[in-house]
Amino acid sequence: GEAIIKKLESFNPKIRSALNLRLAQQNLANIDSVEKRKQLATQLLSDIRLIVDRPNSEDPSAITDVHFVKFVISEAY
Questions:
Q1: 61-72 pLDDT, tens per residue?
Q2: Which of these, 22, 32, 26, lies nearest to 66 by C-alpha position?
């Protein structure tokens, strides 16, 4: 609910940084199939949970999924 949204907003810079770092580590071979993108989403979910849930890591997480709204692949040559 509202409390979760406010909590996420307070962690926004840390979450964005963690996601950017994880995504920067990827190359085309890591994300060239649906299954590999699902694995990436699982890794991103874990990264987010480490930031948001750290004080209460034993409690169930309010963060349940990561969804890609856009997925743009760009490879430098």
A1: 878 899 988 888
A2: 22
